[in-house]
Each structure stands twice: as C-alpha cells, then as structure tokens.
C-alpha cells in the first residue's frame, strides 16, 4: 500500500491542520494581509505603479503651472517646448500607470481571494459546518466576510503605501522649491493622511464591527424565512418572521447611515485641511515673492502642487472608516478557518477500491466535547463481506455518530475502524467515501433533473448506468412513467417527489458510486408506515451484494438482515439474529411491535 502523498493531499492537509494559538490571537487585519504574502512581489509592483500614476498627476499640475506662469511673460515658443511634451507624456503616462496598477493589484487580489475561498471550503468540508454555524450566517461568512479580503488588499493596503511613497517625494520636491512651503505641506499631509484617517477609524470601529454581525443576522433571517415559509404560513407566524427580517434590515440600514456620516466627516475634514494648506502656501509664497526669495513662476508651482498633493491622501479616510467592518469580517472569516477539523489529515493514500469489503470496529469512543458524555463508548462491531447488519436503539443512543465515523465526517477519540484490515482514519476522506457510500437520514436533492442528481455520484455515468441504478433502487418504473423521464425536474429540495422516491433516489445515487460498503442511516425516518415498509424492502433487496450497515430505530423488516446489534447510551448491549433477540430478554423484545 502506497504511503506517498500527492500535492493535492498535502494542500488539503495544510488547509485543515490545527491553527496555533499564537496565530489565532493575532489581529485579523494582520492575518488577512498575510494571506497575500505569496504575491507580495505583485502587490509591491502595484504600489510602484500606483505611486507612478499619482506622482504623474501631481507632476502634471506642477508642469502645467510652470508653463502657464512662464507663458505669461511671453517667452520664445521654444522655451515652452519641453513643458508641452512633458505635459503630454505625463497625461498619457498617468493613465497607463493607473491601468497597469489596477490590473496588477486586482489580479493579485482576486487570485488571493480564490485561494482563500478554497481554504474556507476545505475547512468547512472537514468541520461539520452546519453543526457549528447557522445556514444564513454561514452564507454571509462565505460571501461577504470572505470578500472583505479583497477590500483590504485593494483599498486598504495599496492606497496607504502609495500615499507614503508619493507624498514623501512631493514634500521633498516642494521643499527644494521653497522650504517653508515644504514644511507646511508636510504638516497638512500628516493631518489629512494620518490624523483624519485615525479619527475616521476610531469613529467607524464600533459601527463597522456591528455591521458585519448585522449583515450575518439579516442573511440568517432571510434564509430562515425562505426555507421555513410553508411552516410559517401554516402556523400564522409569517408576519412575525417578516418583522424580524425588517428589523434586521433596519439595523443594517442605520449602520450604513452612520458609515456614510463618518465618510462625509472625513471628506469634509480633508477638504478643510486642503483649503487651509493651499491658502497657507499662497500666503507664504506671496511674502517670499515680496521679499525676493521666490519668483512668480515658482509661486504658481508651489500653490498648484500643494493643491494637487492632497489628492494623494484623499482616499485614506474612507479606507480607515471601513477598517472596523473589515476587521470584524476578518474575525468571522478566521472563525471558520480556525475551527478545528473533525478529521485529522490523512497519512497515506492508496485504499484499494476493490479489496476486502469487511468492516471491523473495535473499542470505538466518540464525544463532542472534551468534558462531555461519550456518544459512543467502547463499541465493537463486525460487518462481514456481503452481509447486512442492523444497528438499532433508541434516539440518542449514538447510531448516527457511528455513521459519521464510518463516512469520515469525524474521527474517533479512541478505538479503531478497519475496512479490509486498513485503518480508515489513515486515508483521505475522499478515498474512504469512494469505498463506503451511504443514504443519510435526510438526503439532499438538488433543484435539478433526476439525471443530474444521479450523476452527482458518477459524472461519467452513461444512460445505461443510470437506468441500472434506478432499477436496483426500485425507482425505474416511476421514472419511466414520467413524461420527461430522466430529465424530469425534481424541484427545490425534491418537492416534486414523494418521500419514498427521495429515499430511493438517494439509494440509486449511492449504488451508482459503486461502493463496497453501504451505510444506511435512518433511511425511513420521515415516511408513513406503508411507504416505510416498501422502502425498507427495496433498500435491503438492493443492498444484497454489499456489506451493509443499516442504522435505524425502526424495527420493521429486520427479520431479513443477517445480524442485529442493539446500542444504548453509546454501548452495545445485545447482539444476535432477529429470532434470537425476540427470544431473549432485553430492549429489542420489549419494544418490538410484533410483541407489543
């Protein structure tokens, strides 16, 4: 058996490895910025291009001021030739540099965002996300909070660095023209580029933090309303639920207004500082011209360059005001990425898909919290090749936890699960699920056609394969009777199908995957008695060629299985055939409907 790891396996292992505590305590903004580290060179190039574009804009106004002031003295046309060429070059260069800056930084940011999304999806695939997050909140984390990374990298990282480079260069040039003017410009840029953004960040910190949470609350309310609409209408609760949605929306709207107010204050403060700095430069320049230390042309350049320089720091207050929301979005994003994986990274690959299908469980122990009770406490179980074993017991006995372990949705806390002698926890989940397939308690049916729902298990399956799977699941006759056959649309959540048809479709999908072991977890939980009996018969008939584990609290039809294991409080309390358990004292005989 091969023990080599593929690059894909290594990437998955890295994305699902435990996050060190020191890393988890770092500021979310720093952690989000670190996500762009593999593309630091591209972002540095983007900063240089941005500085070139911004610097070209400032230089363009400075050259224009020099040319106009010089032209007022009616010099020879040749004296203005260089400035005319420079104006054209700066105008064209500014546009080209800005385009390249946007191209480089957005390309790097979108590539980083794509990698972050992959990391989030891999982490969710290993952490039982729907047991940890509400569906609407999870959608908000996947979309809005993940895309906050893009906002930070494009709007929160590049503009401050561009302002630092271009602002410093502009102050040096103005200082060379007139030192007091350079000092005045440096002071104005510090106020507009540091003090105003700092104040905007302080004012926007609390609203921004609440805004990300409010966005998740609104998404949760909307998803709950849409998914629960039939029940809400049936119980007359739709108005109350709609009021919750309106309340969440109003809260988010109030925060957006506060955010707009902060942005307005930042823009107004920057405009005020710009105006005062320009008037100050004009006043100092006029005094210098009267004193003979500055000529009129240099005065024009000083004033207009001072005016243009504040375009460098103009975006910073808006960026700073959003840092609170971005930080909270980052915290919510890392709340997903830091969630411990339910399964450990695989140590090897190469699980034989055609090997021995016998299943062996020894000393299996599982619990959901370090100090919580054991959901499974020392379970021993054997499913020999080709046999059907039923695991029964009351609700809360640990039956579904057993299914989660077998399907590699979580790892045991102790014990061992072997498939053909191989420890399944040592192999990637995808390899295990290619060998162990199942029908869950609530199988998901996608709002697509029957054909596409089946091909989810094996995309390359042809028409004959699909019909064979339907025949084995006892669903072929119903599908043939449908006008559109395999192209029939099943509706959202399979509302166009009966409960029994949904279960049979899930079974056909599982059979199409060609597994060696079938795990049927409460396959008749929500069916009426007549449908339930028919589905059990069909499931057991279709499973005859597999090593099958039937997990159920329903004791109907268990006379057809090879062996029954009774689990209570996470422990195996009885084992035997249907006849043996009916003859012995215990839970099985006490609750069996034939003896009621």
Automatic annotation (TrEMBL):
GO terms for cellular component: plasma membrane. SMART domains: AAA (SM00382). Gene3D superfamilies: ABC transporter type 1, transmembrane domain (1.20.1560.10), P-loop containing nucleotide triphosphate hydrolases (3.40.50.300). Residues 44-328 form the ABC transmembrane type-1 domain. It comes from the Bacteria. Residues 1-25 are annotated as: Disordered. Residues 359-594 form the ABC transporter domain. GO terms for molecular function: ABC-type transporter activity; ATP binding; ATP hydrolysis activity; ATPase-coupled lipid transmembrane transporter activity. This is ATP-binding cassette, subfamily C, CydC. It comes from Nocardiopsis flavescens. The lineage of its organism: Bacteria, Bacillati, Actinomycetota, Actinomycetes, Streptosporangiales.
